[in-house]
Design goal:
Helix content is 29%, strand content 23%. It is α+β, with helices and mostly antiparallel strands and 423 residues long. The longest helix has 20 residues, at 150-169.
Length: 423
């Protein structure tokens, strides 16, 4: 029998193999971990759904696989290979992997409506089509078994150009031109270079940041908050929190202040439903915390921040941050956030413009606090000022609302109640 990749969770249908823990000839038991799979920003273990002897392993580290794709085959005794019929029974789900000829041709013989199955084409042609913004499913292939060839793509482009020309002559505005292919530059012509592969996580981060930046009209509101009192409270109660098994940092205090401010300004705790043309105001406050890891930026979510104590938040924050650094955070722990906080204070730097984490509509960035002279009641005092940067979606939030939000947030941070920290 074949062991295939099961469903991974809502909205997830593929992943990249990180580790393979079995080889041909191994005897495995049910629920034994067979591979580790990187999905979005989490690494999950995939268990065996049956016991037996591994007769064939179909994946290796670095492979991208999708739901229903074969991982390995099992038998009562090793060695027997699968017939061709079983090889072609799995529908192709990964367009980046070129199928064997018998798989490609058989898939085109399936009794399915035209263009429902993925079109048969080489990986290089798929890459060109992606860069040009062309849907290969719209092109009838002239190759063996309906395989799409480069000549088919050229003919399709020519037909589009003719249609556009007819539209212009009839007074119809033509569609925007396709995105040009990215030029690959040989930088070694000017000196020595070192090439470093982009990890799957970095690819996810790059794609998400690009999508967020291009989909959301960003505006960033800047200010400074006096963290002198917060820092004094942290020092005062740090020893007591250590007796409870956790460290008291400034971040749990910031979480509570942000949650209180979001309750006063619910539009910052919302999402824009572009399909229904509605603003979704959420009655829960789940805050995403950007964690800087060796592999890249990961944003686990702490739920119901407004309902938890500072002690509970300190413990959960410490646990989630460690799980993120160990790449043990689950997919569910990365979803459902209503507002994100990116705190660079431990690293350094001042103001910066964080990118809104879609479908959220706002994000708070904190820089490193610094001792500065401040005039208070006509006297100059040295206080710890922390830079704040509030980026927001201008489709949902106006500048006046952002200014009022950050004023209330600064007040919540500077007038933090000691009773909220005391155990």
């Amino acid at each position: 029998m074949d062991l295939k990749l099961p469903k991974l969770g809502e909205g997830s249908d593929s992943g990249v193999v990180v580790n393979v823990f079995v080889k041909e000839g191994d005897t495995i038991v049910k629920d034994q971990t067979i591979i580790e799979l990187e999905n979005e920003k989490a690494v999950a273990t995939i268990p065996a759904t049956a016991a037996g002897v591994v007769t064939k392993v179909f994946v290796k580290a670095g492979d991208k696989i999708t739901i229903g794709q074969r991982i390995l085959s099992l038998g009562e005794s090793g060695g027997a290979s699968l017939p061709v019929a079983s090889k072609i029974s799995v529908k192709r789900a990964n367009p980046e992997v070129e199928e064997p000829a018998e798989v490609a041709e058989a898939a085109n013989d399936e009794e399915t409506p035209p263009r429902v199955a993925a079109p048969v084409a080489s990986p290089s042609l798929r890459r060109v089509a992606r860069e040009l913004g062309i849907d290969l499913g719209r092109i009838r292939g002239s190759g063996s078994g309906g395989r799409v060839e480069m000549s088919d793509v050229r003919a399709y482009i020519q037909r589009l150009e003719k249609s556009a020309a007819k539209g212009k002559s009839a007074g119809v505005v033509a569609a925007a031109p396709a995105k040009p292919a990215t030029e690959q530059i040989d930088f070694s012509k000017w000196g020595p270079v070192t090439k470093k592969s982009i990890t799957p996580l970095r690819q996810v981060i790059a794609r998400r940041m690009w999508e967020n930046w291009n989909a959301i009209p960003h505006v960033t509101q800047f200010d400074e908050a006096d963290f002198t009192r917060l820092n004094e409270l942290r020092k005062k109660f740090a020893a007591e929190y250590e007796t409870k098994g956790t460290k008291l940092t400034l971040t749990p205090l910031v979480l509570k202040a942000v949650a209180a401010t979001l309750k006063k300004h619910p539009s910052f705790n919302s999402s824009l439903d572009e399909v229904a043309n509605e603003i979704i105001l959420k009655d829960y406050i789940h805050l995403g915390i950007a964690v800087d890891t060796d592999a890249g930026l990961i944003v686990p979510v702490i739920r119901d921040v407004d309902k938890k104590s500072v002690l509970e938040l300190a413990k959960e924050l410490e646990q989630l941050a460690q799980k993120a650094r160990d790449r043990k955070v689950t997919g569910d722990e990365l979803k459902g956030g209503t507002f994100t906080i990116s705190n660079q204070g431990a690293i350094g730097g001042a103001h910066f413009t964080p990118i809104v984490n879609k479908p959220e509509v706002a994000i708070l960035g904190l820089g490193r606090g610094a001792m500065k002279p401040v005039v208070r009641d006509g006297k100059v005092e040295v206080r710890m000022l922390t830079p704040l940067g509030l980026s927001y979606d201008h489709r949902v939030i106006d500048g006046g609302a952002a200014a009022r939000f950050i004023v209330d947030l600064v007040a919540a941070l500077q007038d933090f109640k000691e009773e909220s920290v005391k155990l």
